[in-house]
Every structure is written in structure tokens, then in C-alpha cells.
Amino acid sequence: MPFAEGMLKRLLFFLFCVMSFVVVRAQQDSIFIKADVSTDLKEISVSQNFRYTNRLQVPITKIKLLNWIAAYKNEGTPLAKRKVEDRRRDLHFAKKEDLGSLQNLSINGVKADLNLDSENLYFELPEPLKPGESLNLSLQYDLKLPKISITGFGVGEGKAELKYFFIVPDTFETENQYGRHFLDIDETQNGGSYWEIELHAPQNFKTEGNLLKNGQKFAGTLTADPEFIITKTEPISIIAENKAKETKVVFGYSLTEAEKSSLEFFIPLHLNFIQEKMGFVPDKIFISEKFKNKEEFFGNDDIKFWKFKFQMFTDAQKTDLDYISIITKNVLKQAAITEKNKNHWFKNGLKTYIEKQYLAKYYADENLLGKLPENARIFGIKPLKYFNIGKLKLTERYGIAYQYIMAQNLDQKIGEPYSALSNFNDMAISNFETGNLFDFIAQKMTYEKFDAFIQNFLTENKGKIVDTKSFLDQLAIQSAYSSDFLETYINREMRVNFKAKKFKKIPEGYLVKISKNTDFNIPIKITSEDRHGHSESYWYDTASGKHTGEFLIPRSDINKIQLNDGYIFPEANYRDNYLYTKGFFTNTKKVKLKLGKDVPNPEYNEIYMNPSVSFNAYDKALLGLNFQNKSLFDQQFLYSFTPFYSTGTGKMTGSGLLAYNFRPVDSFFRNWQIGTSGSYFHYDKNLSYKKFSAFSSLIFSKVSRSDISRSLHLSYNYFEKDLTPEMVAANEYDKYGIWSLGYGYTDNKIIHEISFGSNLQVMKDFQKLSAEAFYRWEFAENKKVSFRFFSGYFFSNRARNDLFNFGVSKVSNYAFSYNLLGQSATSGILSQQYVLAEGGFKSYLNSSVNKWITSMNVDAHVWKMFNVYADAGLYQNKGQHAKFIWDSGVKLKVIPDFLEVYFPVQSSLGFEPSFKDYSKRIRFTLVLNMNALTNHFRKGWY
Questions:
Q1: Is the pTM of this model over 0.85?
Q2: Is 526 within 8 Å of 563 (Cβ atoms)?
Q3: How far apart are the first and last CA of the chain?
Q4: CA–CA dist 275, 850 (Å, integer)
Q5: β-pair partners for 549
Q6: Residue 256 CB coordination number (10 Å)
Q7: Pairing with 22, which of 53, 126, 786, 813 sits 20 to 30 Å away (CA)?
Q8: d(C-alpha 274, C-alpha 245), whole Å
Q9: pLDDT in tens, 309-327
Q10: For residues 428 and 435, what is the distance between their CA atoms, to the nearest angstrom?
Q11: Burial 592-614, CB ≥16 within 10 A → b, else e
């Protein structure tokens, strides 16, 4: 009886679907689903019928169905690999019961002979389906939902969120019918279809989604994919009245009463604004927690440090900023069908354009840091008011973000596939740079004309897949070809730069000579400012080709001329966009001293002063002041000078550097730096050293989402050391120069971390080669084992002492390249500092090697902050036999990779805890390198 009853229900559902086809447009794909959710929410039984139309230009013999729940099957899927790139381990280490799968698939009543673990199912047709023809398919299948923590979709504690789990045809199908994989990039499976979904949740559970709801049924046409939430509590909703219609906004997460109250005020305001810009608002908006977290406003969060909290914006302002961004993107998703991976910039750019327009209307005078410059006080002083970052406008954030990533030569072209964009470039390039360009063109052609064009384009393309080339072609016509450069700009990584060269006073005003470094006829905005601060702007089109042109400013008395103010166009260099008509600094940059690093002000030559404190056993506390031109952004020419006062000697010490960086676009290298440096400190009591270096380093280009980096380094280092009479008598080195050539390779993946480096050193008394390989594997969540291999060999060694030998347990540091607190310490706590280099042994087994050495270091996690380690190796000194050594012990990770303590246990020396001097055998690592710490937290962003 239960079987017969089940068959009857399915038959009735099928008949219902057949009748429903009559009222659906003939050429519109239609999908009808009846889904029964299990009581634990982990499984769904699905009966599905859909109408499929061949929209290709050729007949097809099979239909590709997207089975994206198979992306959750194991750690080998494209989804799992992308999550690892984003430094997310959830799917990689997921238990079997937390994975997702498709089960028991039948097509038209016949069990499907298909690989249900594939994300692309190809259903063979009995006869070719011609272009424009349609057919109906009936599917029955079961879904086992994945754990929600993997992507935000699946089953969680007392709730489930459904998206991308149903089997659907691919809207973006091509004649080749290539497979498409789920990457969790908010891509679209099936857009433009009519949906009717009957969703049966367990008793006492509530359902909501992005389709219009009537009881348990959801229906409507979607430009994207259906999305649902199943919870024990009724989802919060707001009816927002705007000039066009009433819109129901449903939230798939909880809200405080204060948040709801704010949203009841702000969302109608947002929808009215969006209606004015786009000419469209939907009947319903559903916002999932995942969508909110992805699309909310970046950069308005409170700054929290330890027990301190600094609020940049009021709670109401944060809500306003977050939801203008969230609501705009949601409306854009419903306004047009786009292929996210290929044309991500279209919706992201329009979202940023509307967001920027909203800021210009309601936050025109708001600072980038909000109220923080006014509220952050130190002893009654407001330090941020003296920084450029505290004076920047909120609307300038879009150009600033592009400048930051471009300065590092890590930006990508706008047209890069979304799946290949780094996480930072998703924001800085796909959103901010594109939106800034749209705003730039809108200013030129007037905002009214640009908005009218967007409204007409969206209306004409409603229900269609957007052709972005047609969009750009039509925009070029509407803008009188001011935007003609955009198509090429989007598909090429570029470094456009305008330069204000000089001006000439003429009766009609000022004639300004401006050059550009591109062949494209990109328009330019010239702003003039008088001595009272009153400004006027003028727009000009430029001719094709790299050239210098003259442009008229029809004002009789001005003080300053500026190109493309407010970072409105993504230029390579804003520093040459200024001219001054009066005063000593006419056509010259003013010099400004600043305390602490800052976002650079392109109007000035800025020198940043930073207090610097260091320590070693001989200089004791080093108190200094660093002078440099490096701001928070990377620059081509760098200088840095740090004079120190050595409290241990009462003398002045310090260091300095001069360097120049070459960062070409689309080259085999990302950065080529050449420079020179020097330092003067003490390496023993009352003994100083001087180090002079000339160097060249090449950092090769990298795939943006990859953690792989490669570098090549060549340097010459010259050293002069003070010696005691005893050292002179022992014929120790007081002067020596060393050539060094090195190569480095690192792959900082979160699961499998690999690095390799080799180094050749040459001087008159020795030539040696060394190589080091490192592998760290996270074999279980937060449990790692690492293997390090080192090998060193002297081609010749005529050195007078052991200064240049390979270290076994301690490094000589003759090049003063390691940050040792006690360079020459032979006793005391500072002598126990450990550096993982050369032999890498933790126990004091031997001092050095003058012929060859090979070693292996193993380190494995056992419990919480504790690891075990073991080292083993062979070495040979001249005139002696090769010797095998080993050690083992326990490592305490206070701050992993930065502060760690080693407790030796067993070694070639015996059971070390039984030794009377055991406390002196304990070693520690201490890395005082802020760049290393910064790079550690940057992983996964660039």
C-alpha cells in the first residue's frame, strides 16, 4: 500500500506538471519539483519534471544536466581545491557523513545508468533535438545534503539552506557541451527558467526562499537559481514600500530589534534610489546569511584590539552602508542573467557604481575612516587628523584600493575569469575598478544619460543572457565614444597614466600641456582651484596615440591644476597630476615630514619618520628613528635610513638602503629590485662590524590565486670587523667580501606546504653550495608533520678558521643575515637562541662542518601546543671519517613559527634530561620580523 500510494502521488504530480506547461511560455524552460525533506533535514526525496528547449544553433544528441551536489563528494573536487586555495579546510577534512551526494536517480521512470559522482550528467536522447525544439523530462532522485559549514549551503544545527542541489540543465550550454563545475563563486546554474517548487519540510519547521510563496509552494521566473532556508522559527521579513511597488524583503538570519528598526527605514530608501538608477526593483528579495557576508560593505567594521574598540561609523550608518551594497547586488542579480565566471565585472561594476552614487548623495563629506579621526585620542590628541588616511573621503576608497594592489603589481585585468581572480582582486578589480570606470564615464556623459542607458539596456535584455560586448558597444555610442576604450581596457592589464607637464598663461585663461602613455582616446578631467579653494572642472576627449596635447582652462586666476581628482580614473601614477601656478613650488613637489606610515598624498614628497627600537646583547637597547619614503603602498624608488643610539656602547649605529623597483605589466617577473645597503652595529663587546651590500633580486610572476612564488637573488657583501689583539693573533678575518647567488621556491598551500632554496657563495678562500627543501603536511585538521632536508658542500675551503663552515647546531652568521640577539654569545640564555638553518640540529652535537653535510629534520604535532621533533644527518670534516648524528625532543609552540621552545630528550649524546646542565640545553626560536608576520596573515588574499 505505501508503494502504491507513493506511485499515485507521483502520477498526480506528473499530471499537474503537464497541465502547468500549458500556461508557461513555449520557449521558456520550466522546472517543477516536489521535495520531501527528512525529519533530520539531512536528506531530500525529489520528484522533478522540466521542459528543456534546445537554444543552440545545432541539433543535440544528449542533454547535459548539472549535478553540483557531487562537488561535495570528497577532497579531490574542484570545489575542494578552491576551498583549500582560500585556506578553508572544511571539505578537505570532512567526515563521510558530512559529504553530499546524489542517490537513486531515475529518468523517465528508468534507473539512470550514469556516474552519479560526476558534476555533469549527460543524458542520451533517443533522437536528435533540433534547434528551438523542446522536450519534457521526469526525474526522481534522493539528495544527501552536505554539512553547511563547507559552503554555507547544506544542513546545520536545526536548519538547512538549499541552493545548487537540484539537478538542472545548464543555461550557458555551448555546442561542445563542456562540463562545468561548482566553485562556490555565486555562479548561476540555470537562469531565466520558470520554477514551481513544492517544498515539504518536517513538522514545526518553516520555509522561505527567493521565489514567491503560497503555502508550501514557491513559484516564479528566476534570473538565477532557487534558494531556500528551512528553520524552526519564522524568518524575519519587511514589506518595503517604494515609489514603484511594494517589495517583500526576507532575511535568512536573525536580526536585533535595533537592526530591524533601522532596516525598516533604510531599505525603502535603498530601493527608491536603486529604482532611480536602474528603473527596476523586484517583488521579493531574499537575503541569505552567506550572501550578506559576501556582499556587505567592506571597511566599515569597528576596529577591535584586545579590550579596546574604536567605532568608525554609528550602528545605523553601518547598517545603511551594508545594506545598500547587499540590496543593490540582489536587485542586479534579479535584473539580468550573466555568466559569473566570464562577465562578473558587469554586475559587480554596476553595484559599485550605484554604491558610489549613494555615497556621493548621502555620505559626500564622510571620511574614509568615518568618525575615527575625531574619536581616536591619545592623551587628548587626535593623531589620525594629521594623517592623509584620516582626510580621504569615503568615495575615494575605490580608487585607493586599486592603487594599493597595482603598486605591488598584483592586479589583474578586469576581464580575467572570476575563478582566476585573487580574493583581493575580486573586490579591488572586479568591483571597485570597474565601478570607478563606469562612474568616470557617467561623469563625462552626465549621470542622467548614463542611468537612462542602463535602464534601457536592462529593460531590453530582460530574461536574456546579457551580451557584454553589445553593452560596451551601445555605451560607446551613447557616450559619444568617450567609453570606446573600455572593451580593450577590460581585456588587458594596463598602466594608463596622464601627466600634467606645464602650463602657459594666455588671455583666454591657462593652456595646460598634458601627455598620456596610451594609444587609446581616453577622456580626461581637469580641475582648477583658486586661492579661496573654489574649484571648477572641465572634461576633454583626447586624440588617439601616445602624445602631448594642450587643453584650455578658461579661468583668469587659479592656484592649482589637477588631473582626474578624487582617484576617479585608475591611473598608474597620480603624483604627476598636479601643477601649481604660483609660489616657490610651481611645478615642484612640496616636501612633508610625517610621523608614521600613511596612505601617500600624491601632491607631496613625503618622508615618513618611525621610531625604531631594537636589541642585541652588545648594543643593548637600540633607540632610533627611521626615515623612509615607503608609505603603506609599495613604490618604485625606495630609501630608508635608520640612525640608532646604542645604549650599550654610547655610540651611534644604524643602517640604510637605496633601491629601485621595476614592475612591468605582463612580464615573466613581477618585480626586479636593484639596490645597495649598509649597516653598522656591534657583534661582540666593544667590537663593531660594517656591512656594505649591492644586490639585485628578481621576483617572478605568479598565478594570482596560487601560493607559489619564485625568486632569484644576486648580491655582493663586503664586511669589516673590529678584532681584539687575541683575534688578530689567531689570524681571524677582519675584512672579507662574498658573492652570493640564490634561488627560492615556495608553495604555501594550507595542506601541502613546500619550499626549496639553493645558494652558491664564493670568495677567495672558499666556494660552497647548499640546498634546502621543506615539506609540511596537514594530515588531520590542525595537525601537521614537517620534513626538512639540507645539504651543503665545499668545492674548496682554504679558510683560516671555522668562520665560514656549515653549522650543525648553531649558525656562524658571518654574513650577519640572521637576527641573533647574542651574535657571539657562548653562554647564557642568548646563546640558546636557535635558528632553523643549515644542519638544523637542536642538541649541541658539533659546532661546524668544513667539507660536507646532509641532514633531515622532522617535526610532528602530537597534542595542543606540543610537537615532537627528530633530526638525523651525516657530515664529514676534512681529514676525518663521515659521522652520523641524531637528536629528538619536544617542541612547545608558544606562537607557531615565531616563538617556539625546544626541549631535547634523546640524542647521540644520550638521555639529555639526565645531564646536570640540561637547562642550558633548552633552545628557543624568536622571529622579530614584522614582514614575516604580515606575510603570514596575507596568505590566501593575493
A1: yes
A2: yes
A3: 60
A4: 77
A5: 514
A6: 9
A7: 126
A8: 13
A9: 889 999 999 999 999 999 9
A10: 10
A11: eebeebbbbbbbbebebebeeeb
Q: Provide the pLDDT confidence category of residue 583 given band limits of 50, 70 and 90.
A: confident
| Cα–Cα distance measured from residue 322 to residue 314, given in angstroms and rounded to the nearest whole number | 12
Residue from 598, 597, 586, 594 nearest 561 by CA: 586
**Bridge partner residues of 134 (DSSP):** 53
In this structure, the number of other CB atoms found within 10 A of the CB of residue 31 comes to 24
Residue type, 597: K
Q: Round to whole Å and give the CA distance between 41 and 159.
A: 7
Question: Which amino acid is present at 838?
Answer: E
Rounded Cα–Cα distance for residues 740 and 769 (Å): 10
Confidence at residue 261, expressed as pLDDT on a 0 to 100 scale:
96
| pLDDT tens, position by position, 520-571 | 999 999 999 998 889 999 999 998 889 889 999 998 889 899 999 999 999 9
Q: Using CA of residue 723, residue 728, residue 732, residue 733, what is the dihedral sign?
A: positive
C-alpha cell read off for 157 = 544545527
Grid look-up 499515485 returns 8
CB atoms inside a 10 Å sphere around CB 864: 9
Q: What are the residues whose beta carbons fall under 8 Å from the beta carbon of 650, sequence distance 6 or more? A: none
SS3 content of the chain, % helix, strand, coil (to 5): 25, 40, 40
Closest CA relative to residue 156, chosen from 261, 51, 236, 42: 42
- Paired sense of beta strands 604-616 and 578-580, if any: unpaired
The pLDDT tens digits for 167-183 are: 999 999 999 999 999 99
* pLDDT band, residue 934 (cuts 50/70/90): low
Q: Where are the alpha helices (DSSP H) in 146-234?
A: none
Strands 852-863 and 498-506, by their bridges, are unpaired
- Cα-Cα-Cα-Cα torsion 89, 93, 98, 103, nearest 10 degrees, comes to 110
Between β-strands 194-200 and 212-214, what pairing exists: parallel, antiparallel or unpaired?
A: unpaired
- Cβ(511)–Cβ(528) below 8 Å: no
* Among 724, 717, 726, residue whose Cα is nearest residue 690: 717
Q: What is the CA radius of gyration of the chain?
A: 33
Nearest to 705 by CA among 749, 670, 674, 758: 749
